[in-house]
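User: Sequence in, structure out. Go.
Assistant: Echoing your sequence, followed by the structure tokens.
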Amino acid sequence: MQTVKTVTVQQRGTYSIYYSHGDDSPDLFALDWAFTPTDGISKNDGKPAEHKWFSSVKEGQRWWPHNETDEKMHEVLLEHFGLAEWKEQYPLKEMKLMSPRMLARERLEKERKNPRLEKHKMKSDTAGFPILAKEYRD
């Protein structure tokens, strides 16, 4: 008789939120959690990813760093995590440092306290990595 060992694999990848700037721009933008940005040419110099949200833009087949406005970044995070109704409680300065799982917990707590709130699904837009925010490993 053979003994089979079961191994649990944790999903890990970049948690991304895709967004646009409306009809004015055909470009695709993303907010990425704990991403190590480069200039698109150089390789990561071995530094660990910073635990904050970064913005990037897709031009052609490549993603490039993008200096997003604070207002747009705040709007995207609030909408993705279903927290727009409580904007005053979530200043961007704090949200920029909150992981997808932390932000999902905030929304889930709001839903727990108010059962009439619609359930808000929060998942990564990263291709091949559709993990729910509440299950994301920091």
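User: And one key feature?
Assistant: The radius of gyration is 17 Å.
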